Amino acid sequence: MFGPRWGGGGIGRYVEELITELQAIDQKNRYVLFLKPENIDACKITNPFFEKLVVPAHWYTLKEQILLPKIIQRSGVEIMHFPHWNVPLACPVPFVTTIHDLILLENPKSAKATTLDPIRFALKRLGFKRVLSHAIQKSKKIIAVSEYTKSSILKHFAVAEEKIQVIYEGVSELNESSSSLLSSTQYPNIPISQYLSSPFFLYVGSAYPHKNLESLLHAFSFFVQAHPEVKLIMVGKDDLFYQKLKKEVDEIEIPKNSVIFTGFVPDQVMKELYQRTSLYLYPSFIEGFGLPPLEAMRYGAPVAVAKRTALPEILGDAALYFDPNNIEQMVEIMEKALNDNALMTTMRQKGEAQSKRYSWKTMAEETKKIYEWFGS
Asked: How do the residues of the chain divide into helix, strand and coil, expressed in percent and rounded to 5?
């Protein structure tokens, strides 16, 4: 799952940063990285104690369940760290698992979101529950990315509390640039002119149902009637869920070109979007950590999020909060972003300070201690 482009957003970022930091701090233990053909070249080795193996199977598949244990066995590793719950039932060595969230158990709407027919979906759902339960019950240690996620695990599974360790994630350093990339022709697939001509609000992430983006669009549809100059930019991989969201825009009263879908954008562009946006909005119903709004804070965006699950724990008083079911509250915060400059300056300052409390290096150091606990 290495890399946000190949590994599924936040989890891909987590894996990428963990590997980068472990290579910097560990000159003692041997590591084998199991990668897909799509991302094996993107994962750079900078430490002679690290090596790469290719696993020609996608996540959450029967092929992964069958093929990965054999590759693990041949690799000679003594322990495995699975950065997500898709642990093979026949894993031949002891393992630790990172649990980012239990959205598929706690948010029925997202759990039912699928492109499969009812029979295949039912089979996949049964498989998910079996694999998740196995990962939690059989892990020697469980890493939870927040106290909220830890409490969710304890709520849904009979597992000893001391088996779970909370290790917070960090905030990534996006690639530096010496010039404005948004005005460059380097990224012709991105509608550059729309970024530069108007003030804009920003959302970055997936369009899964629990992200509550339909409510965000409806709130923006009311706001934009009074402020037609403001755009809403939505950054995320152009998958089936984003296609559905685009249809939603067509069905509600939002002026043409007021909502801009960019698809994937590189880090350099992402950094500049954070720096320029009037407000970063994150209306998600459920989050295990909240990496996207924390990253937005790191690069100077004032942030407004749903007051739910792990978000208040991670963001503290550095964010503005709203009820994700309350369209009027979202509109009120949009108005403040446009008209209350003093408040926005304060939130930018608080956000940057809050983001500095989280470190990928610290995350890797704490994770390494768990690996070495196996041999103690």
From this structure: 45, 15, 40
Residue with tokens 């990534």: 172
Neighbouring C-beta atoms of residue 76, cutoff 10 Å = 9
| CATH number among 3.40.630.30, 3.40.50.2000, 3.20.20.80, 3.40.47.10, domain 10-170+359-373 | 3.40.50.2000
Check whether domain 192-355 has CATH 3.40.50.1360, yes or no = no
Tokens at residue 75, please? Answer: 């690799």
Residue indicated by tokens 């199991």: 34
d(CA 7, CA 9): 6
pLDDT band at 257 (very low <50, low <70, confident <90, very high): confident
Phi then psi for 44, rounded to 5 degrees? -90, 135
SS3 assignment, position 269: helix
pTM: 0.88
Q: Binning pLDDT at 50, 70 and 90, where does residue 334 land?
A: very high
- In angstroms, the Cα distances linking 25 to 2, 50, 363 are 19, 12, 12
Token pair 């990285």 is at which residue? 33
Residue 113 to residue 293: CA distance in whole angstroms: 24
Helix crossing, 360-373 with 10-25: angle to 10°? Answer: 70
How far apart CA 13 and CA 196 sit, in angstroms, is 28
Q: Do domains 10-170+359-373 and 192-355 have the same CATH topology?
A: yes
Per-residue pLDDT reduced to its tens digit, 297-324: 999 999 999 999 999 999 999 999 999 9
| Beta-bridge partner residues of 202 | 233, 280
Alpha-carbon distance of 167 to 77, in angstroms, equals 24
Q: How far is CA 219 from CA 216, 226, 273, 279, in A?
A: 5, 12, 21, 14
| Length of the chain, in residues | 376
pLDDT level of residue 3 (50, 70, 90 thresholds): confident
> Hey, where are the domains in the chain?
10-170+359-373, 192-355
- Continuous segment of H or E residues that includes residue 144: strand 141-144
pLDDT bucket at 286, cuts 50 / 70 / 90: very high
